[in-house]
Amino acid sequence: MINYEQMYREKLRTAEEIVSNIQSGYVCCCPTGTGEPEAIMNALTERVLKENLNNIEHHLMLASRRWKYWEPELAGKIKHVSWFTSGASRPVVQDGRADFMPGFFYENAVRWVKYVQEADVFYAMVSPMDKHWYFSFGPAASEAHAQMSVARKVYIEVNPKVPRVLGDCFIHISQVDLLCESSNPLPNLGETVLNEKDIKIGELIAEHIPDGATIQLGIGGMPNAVGMKLMDKKDLGLHTEMFTDSMVVLMESGAVNNSKKNIHKGKTIATFGVGSQSMYDFIDDNPAVEFYPVSYVNDPRVIAQNDNVISINACVEVDFIGQVCSESIGAKNISGTGGQVDFVRGANWSKGGKAFICTYSTAKDDTISKIVPALATGAHVTTSKNDVDHIVTEYGIAALKGKTAAQRAKALIAIAHPAFRDKLTFEAKKMNLMV
Ligand code: COA
Asked: Can you give the pTM of this predicted structure?
């Protein structure tokens, strides 16, 4: 009989001892959010400075906080590779000290296994070992298994604050090379404060959501605001990429019970989650919520197996033909494709499904229209003109599928901010789109 308690003790080190194994030129990776191992990453930063290591690559999906290894003095020593740029990582990506990885979120595992192929080290923060000798990755299931499968060494940081989340997100003590313990607080996104535009957009979309629909809410303030408008619905389901505090409210209010789903009936399904400690407490050992790898959760073919899938995501700008930019301001990367296209396609393919992309009609104190004749030079197209379904602003909804180029331009101008409509119409005429 293998003594796993003893195995745990034999593998136990300090974070400093663990990172003493990391050398110049290493490729390291970790999961997102609660999976980012704070003690290990900070110890690595100290080691790099003290020992003058260089050329280390650190791959991370969505950084949930600002890391010390991004300080200018570490330029060239540890390079951050952003698989989805967050508010925290924007400055380091935009000033050229970090690189970013384009791609559909559901293909993250494929990119690790087929294209990146190997990493020297995978490290992750996990929940304490359970009575079966497993640690849970917590709400950080998205690419943890894929990264681990290509890594030569696996280190974990055991933190009792990480919830023991159910689904396909466990790692056995025998799969671990070394471990350390910590009790740092988990990342907290803070509260979503709704403004009038969010409330209007939420109401507009809520009218299109039938009882029994399966919902995905994307990243950013607005999709979560929509979630708050769904409290009066019945028998909703959740099959979503990112689990957030607004989903706890929907589940606790009874609006979500997952009873009408075709797959995972009775369960909320997600691939990662970031929120408040009370959200983390809610998903701890909760059989009503399961986390699976993103290669499964975000696969449009899986998403489409439920009927009436409604996806709700946000964007930066939309042009007259319906091309949606959600990840850059011009050529400047501000986030990533994430699961937007995965869920737009999944919703489009689902029987009765609809995909909504929402945006305020303007940015920067009403000085910029987010409905534009053509995307800004260098803008990254997230959702293509052929995938796009509904665009929503606080002035209404433009249903674009089945519409011609001219019909699309007119429908989009009708939901632009009134102050920009004449100018946009003038531009549309110049482009022969007012036929
Ligand atoms: N021109 C210039 N600046 C613009 C702009 C435009 N058209 N649109 C937005 N901005 C600016 C905002 O003013 C804001 O600037 P600030 O940080 O200086 O205030 C910044 O860009 C971010 O915009 P904001 O609307 O506050 O972002 P958000 O937090 O609501 O997120 C997205 C919106 C589009 C960035 C986010 O939804 C995203 O990353 N989407 C892509 C991925 C996705 O949809 N995944 C879905 C599955 S989870």
From this structure: 0.97
User: What is the residue-wise DSSP string for 190-202?
Assistant: -PPPP-HHHHHHH
Between residues 417 and 224, which one has the greater pLDDT?
417
CA distance 304 to 307: 7
Q: For the chain, where do the domains classified as CATH 3.40.1080.10 start and end?
A: 4-181
The CATH number given to 196-430 is: 3.40.1080.20
Task: Report the separation in Å between the CA atom of 326 and the middle of ligand 1, taken as the mean of its atom positions.
Answer: 7
Q: Which residue has the tokens 């969505």?
A: 62
Secondary structure string (H, E, C) spanning 294-338: HHHHCCHHHHCCCCCEEEEEECCEEECCCCEECCEECCEECCCCC
**Alpha carbon distance 92, 100 (integer Å):** 11
Domain 4-181: CATH superfamily, name plus number? Glutaconate Coenzyme A-transferase (3.40.1080.10)
| Residues near 432 by beta carbon (within 8 Å), at least 6 away in sequence | none
Which residue type does 76 have?
Answer: G
Going by alpha carbons, the residue nearest to atom 17 of ligand 1 is 87
Å from CA of 422 to ligand 1 middle:
25
pLDDT, tens only, 81-129? 999 999 999 999 999 899 999 999 999 988 888 888 899 999 999 999 9
What confidence score (pLDDT) does residue 269 get?
A: 98
Q: What does the pLDDT read at residue 156?
A: 98
Give the binding-site residues of ligand 1, using a 6 Å CB cut-off. 218-222, 241-242, 313-317, 326-327, 329, 334-336, 338-340, 363-364, 368, 370
Tokens of 340: 């937007």
Q: Which atom of ligand 1 is nearest to the CA of 241?
A: 48
Name the residue of 82, 195, 219, 269 whose CB sits within 8 Å of the most ligand 1 atoms, as the mutation to test its pocket: 219
Cβ proximity of 290 and 167 under 8 Å: yes
Whether the pLDDT of residue 221 is over 80: the answer is no
* Concatenated DSSP letters of 122-147: EEEEEPPP-TTSEEE--SB-TTHHHH
- The string over 363-389, giving b where at least 16 C-beta atoms fall within 10 Å of a residue's C-beta and e elsewhere, is eeeeeebbbbbebbeebbbbbebebbb
Name the DSSP letter for residue 175.
Answer: G
Distance 152 CA to ligand 1 centre (A): 37
Helix (H) or strand (E) segment spanning residue 179: strand 178-181
Residues of the chain within CATH 3.40.1080.20 domain(s) are 196-430
